[in-house]
Hints:
50% of the residues lie in helices and 0% in strands. The chain has 111 residues and is mostly helical.
Amino acid sequence: PFVSELPPDLPAIVNSGLPAGLLENGGPRLAAKFLVGMASPKIVGLRLTNDELFGYCDDVDFKVLMAEIEKLVNTEKPPEEDDDSVHGSDLDPETGLPMDIKAMEQLEDED
């Protein structure tokens, strides 16, 4: 039987308590497997079954936990850039300014 309540400290665990690289390399699904105590080949390979948080949420439904971790992870990320935004490759290597601004400055200088 699973409880419907998530542990109140889950945000802190997801933000800073998970073993290094677990969330970054495996995403919310692997983090949820780790927290419910599923010994997947990746978790066993990383030798995480002896970690103190392994199985910490063993009484929480896996899908509920994974959905909550996805929410927590998505709220931590900065907003996605629009397609019109400047990307690193659009910067002039000399000035560090976006190419379109540099072109505008050159046009102003010609006047």
